[in-house]
Every structure is written in C-alpha cells, then in structure tokens.
Specification:
Length: about 110
C-alpha cells in the first residue's frame, strides 16, 4: 500500500483504513496509521476478536480504539469514518449494533476533539 501511494503521489489518492480487517490480520492498527499518516482518507469502523473477520460494533472486540483515535488525531485525520457492521453474527440485531457503534464512536469523537 505504501509503495502504491508513493508511486501515484496525488493529493486525491489515499488509503482506506479498515480497522476490522487489520485487526483480524494481526496488524497493530496505530502502527498502520503511523505508516500511512495523512494518506488515510476514510476509515471503516468495525471490531472483532482479532482472529476472525467479524464486523461487530466498535468497542465489542479487541481493537485498541483509544490508540486508533490518538494516532488519527496525531496525523490530523479529517476524513470520513463509516460504521462497518454486519454479517451472520449480528444480522438479527443489526439496528442495535449500528446504534451501539454510533454511540461508542461519538464518545471517542468528543474525547479526541473530532
């Protein structure tokens, strides 16, 4: 990803930070943010157990959301954050899961001044 971003090197070409996928791949998300820096244009916010690619509401898995938001703030992130929940695990309670995600993320927005 970094090589591609460097090769294209255009202001309107950036990265999507998919927190759930990175966590399931055992990536350290704040470190990924450090590497991608201001090239992050969009964030997918979902959580999981760090093993399987579930799409739970943020805060219901093992992601260090404080670390994620601290790193995003450090790099002056001003893009969009999308709630990315769904799948078989939550399909019967999708509305509740989205509401929980919204409430969780709003607290982090307030805490970190977004």
């Amino acid at each position: 990803m970094l090589k591609l971003l460097e090769e294209v090197n255009e202001e309107n070409f950036g990265a999507v930070l998919d927190c759930g996928h990175l966590n399931a791949a055992k990536e350290i998300i704040p470190l990924s943010i450090e590497k991608l820096g201001e090239k992050i244009m969009y964030v997918h916010a979902s959580d999981n157990d760090g093993r399987d690619n579930y799409h739970f509401a943020p805060g219901k898995g093992t992601i260090d959301w404080d670390g994620v938001f601290q790193a995003l703030k450090k790099h002056k992130f001003n893009g969009y954050i999308a709630i990315d929940v769904g799948g078989e695990e939550v399909k019967n309670r999708l509305n509740e899961e989205v509401l929980e995600a919204k409430n969780f993320l709003e607290k982090l927005f307030e805490k970190y001044g977004f």
